[in-house]
Amino acid sequence: MQLAPGAWRYALPAFLLAGPIGLLSPIATLFALGFGGATLLFFRDPVRESPKYGVLSPADGRVSVIREEGNRVRVGVFMNVTDVHVNRAPLSGQVESVEHEPGKHRPAFSKESDNNEKVRIRFSEYELTLIAGAFARRIHPYVEGGETLERGQRLGHIAFGSRADVLLPESFDVKDVGVAKGERVRAGETVLAVSAAHNSDE
Known about the structure:
Blueprint: H1 7-21, H2 26-42, E1 55-56, E2 61-69, E3 72-79, E4 86-88, E5 93-101, E6 118-123, E7 127-132, E8 138-141, E9 148-149, E10 154-159, E11 162-167, E12 184-185, E13 191-193
Antiparallel strand pairs: 1-13, 2-3, 2-12, 3-11, 4-10, 5-6, 5-9, 6-7, 7-11, 8-10
């Protein structure tokens, strides 16, 4: 099983403690082993096959936001603790900037999460925002400004849950969005939107 970077940093302490704390309680050993195993499962990074058209979901989870912002459309995906948390590029393009913004740590499914800590990855035509949640305190971008990414390419992960938003290119309208709130999506595989006016790497 392929793992996201940093997986063993979180899981190894639990495995190392499993032996010593077994002298105090076998139940504690089982708990430590279970925690370590669950952590590795959380950091799983499966291979994905991307379709050849449309804006791809940047995250596994459920669609939690679909809204118009001026002449742009935002689609957000909420990641539960059981979802894969490796994020992928919705469209091909060159990264213009990667900006960290400090903020709160409210539940990522709430309206207040718009003020949470986040990392904005800006491309020439669209923007991807990785948003920390109540428990997630670490956003790990893999890319820097100037890099060119392909659709579906890994670009970062959020340790222990949160939300990923795509601000679609200006050529997209809300009617071009092909998913609904509450719908489950998969990073790099589910098509969020298709626009006849935008040739998205077809």
